[in-house]
C-alpha cells in the first residue's frame, strides 16, 4: 500500500473538487497502479519524481513519487485545472534544503520572456492589486516598509545563512508593498515564509531558528538512521519540526485523509501546528506554565492540542479545560471534538477525560457538590460569621448590594473610594483573596497590586462598608461569584488537608487575563502542585474584566516557565497594525506584572487596509453599514462570518432597528438562526470569536470609552478602567480575519488612531 504525505493546501478548492480529490487519494492509497488514476510522468520536468494523476476530466493532482523499500510514498502537492497542474508539475522540485535539511517543494518561476531586439526588460516588480477602499476616506496608515531591507539583510545572507531559496529571497527583498511581500511568503515553503516574516519583524536569525526548530545541517554529523538515498532522507525529513508545518503523513485511516482535505485551510490548525505551538502542546513542565501572545496567535489552538496530548498520554487523567464564560467553554468543547472526535469529554469535574466548563460554572459545581458541613465551615472561614443558611443564591450583580451598603454604612469616605467599582475590586483582590474576616486583619493586610494607597482611617471606612455589604448579602441569602470561588477554594483545601485527592490532574486555562484573585485561589486547590498542573494562556492586552493578579501570591509560580507566541494566524497584517495602534501608549502588564509590548507581533496574511467611516449622523452611519453588508453579501460572504460589534446594547438596538428599516436582516449572535444573516454583538460578547468581515459600529467620542466605567474613580482605578476600554476596542478590532470597517457618527472616539493623529497634528 503506498504511503501518502499531504502538503498543506495553499490554493482553495471548491467542496465538489475536494470530494473528488478524496476519492482520488483513497484509490491511490489502495493501489497506485489502478488504471483510472493515470499516474503519469511528464517530459522536460525540473524533478524526475514529479507525477500527475487524473482527478477527473478537468482536474489533475500533482504528486512526487519517492522510492522507499517495496512500496512507494507519494507526496501530494495539490490539485489544479489540467493545464495549470502540468505547468506547476513541470516547474516544481521536491528537495532537501541545503542548509537545514528540511524537505521543501520549490516552484521555480519561468524567466520573463525578453522582447526581441530590445534592451532586456527591467525585473518584474509585483504591482499589488489593492482592493478598492470601501469608504470615500481611507484611513491614513503609516507607509509600509520592507522589514528585510530595513534590517539590512542581503541576498547572500538570506540564502547562505538563512537557507532561503535564492528566487524567493530575491523577490522578498524586492517587494515594495505589504501585499507583494505577503504574496512571496505565502507561496514559499511554509518554514521559509515564516522565517522571512520573523526576520522582517525584527527577530534575529538565531531566535527564529530556535522557534522554528531549524538546525544547520552543515554543522551536524549525519544521523545514520536517515538512510542513504535522497528519497529516504526526504522521508526522514518529514518528521522534522519545521517540515510538519507543511507536511503530514496520512495514516491508513480514510478519516484522517478526509479531515485534512475537507477542512482545507480553515481547519489547518488541526494538523499543521507551528513548531512552537507543537512544543507547548506536547511539552512537560515541573509546575505551572504560562503561554502569552497577542490576539489570534493560536493560544486556544495550543490549549486544544494540549488537552488531546494529555488525554492520550494518560487515558485515566482528569483534565479540566476552563475559560472565562460558558459560551467560550461551549465553543472549546466543539473544537475539541473537531480536533479529535474520539476524545472523551467528561460530564463532571473529577471524572476521567476532559471536562470543559466556564470558570464560574465550575466553581458552582464544586460548591453545590459540597456537603452542608463543608460549606458551613468554608463560609465561616471566608466570610466570617457562619451564614444563617448554607443554601445561598449565587448572584452576578453585586452593584446593588454595594449601593445598599454605601447607604447603610457611616464611612466618611469621599466618592473616589465610596463607589461600587473600587469597593468590589478591593473586596475581591484584598479581602477575599486573603480570607479576611475581621477589621483588624484588614487594617494590617498588605494590599499588593492595588493602585490607590489607603490610610488607616480610610481602611476603617472601607471596612465599615464591607461589613454592611456582607450583612446585606447574608440577609438576602445572596452570594457573589467571587465569594463563591473563595468558598469553593476553601472546601477543596480542607478536603486536601483531610487527605482527599484533588479533583483534577491537569488544568488548562484560556483567557486567563480576565480571571480574578478568587478564581486563582480556587484553581490552585483544584489540582495538586506538581508536574503539568496548570497551563495558563493569556493576553494582557485583552484584559476587559477585572484587574491583573500577581499569580505568585496564590501559590502559582511560573518563573522560568513562561513563553510568548508572536505570529498572528487570524488577522491580516493591515488589521493587526491598526489594532496595535489602538494600544499605543497603554502600559500593559501581564499576570506577573511584567510590561507587555507588542514588539515582534506579526501576521502571515495580507489584505485591504482597514476603513474608517466617519459620518455626520446616525442615519448616515447606518447607510454605511448597509452598504458594506450588501457589498459582502454580493461577494457571497456567509452571513455568520460578518460581525457587527458595538460598545453597548443600546447601540445594538439602534443598529437592529435602523437596518430593519433598510431591509437588512441581522441577528443577535446568541440567536443566529440558520447562519445566513450577519451577526451583531457587544464588544464584550465578541471575545474569543472571529469573522471574515467586521464592522465596529458607533465608535463615537461619547460611547468609547464609556464614561460610566471610569466616572468618579480615583486616578489609579480610572487609569485601569480606561485601559480596559482600550483593550475592549482592541479585542473587537482583532476579531476580523480579512476586512475591518470602523464607523462612527459625529466625533470619533479619542481611542482611535485617527483621533490621535488629528490631536497630534493640531
Ligand atoms: N497552526 C495553525 N495553522 C493554521 N491556523 C491556525 C493555527 N493556529 C491558529 N490558527 C488559526 O488562527 C486563529 C486564531 O487562533 P486562536 O483562536 O487559537 O488564537 P488566540 O491566540 O486564542 O486568539 P484570541 O486571544 O484572540 O482569542 C483561528 O482561526 C485558528 O484556527
Automatic annotation (TrEMBL):
ATP-binding keyword on record: yes
Binding site for ATP: 293-300
Pfam families, per the entry: UvrD-helicase (PF00580), UvrD_C (PF13361)
Catalytic activity entry: ATP + H2O = ADP + phosphate + H(+); Couples ATP hydrolysis with the unwinding of duplex DNA by translocating in the 3'-5' direction
UniProt domain UvrD-like helicase ATP-binding: residue ranges: 272-579
Molecular function, one GO term: exonuclease activity
Annotated segments matching region Disordered: 207-229, 593-615
Organism: Glutamicibacter bergerei
Matches recorded under InterPro entries: DNA_helicase_UvrD-like_C, DNA_helicase_UvrD/REP, P-loop_NTPase, UvrD-like_ATP-bd
Swiss-Prot/TrEMBL keywords: ATP-binding, Exonuclease, Helicase, Hydrolase, Isomerase, Nuclease, Nucleotide-binding
Enzyme class: isomerase
Protein name per UniProt: DNA 3'-5' helicase
EC numbers on record: 5.6.2.4
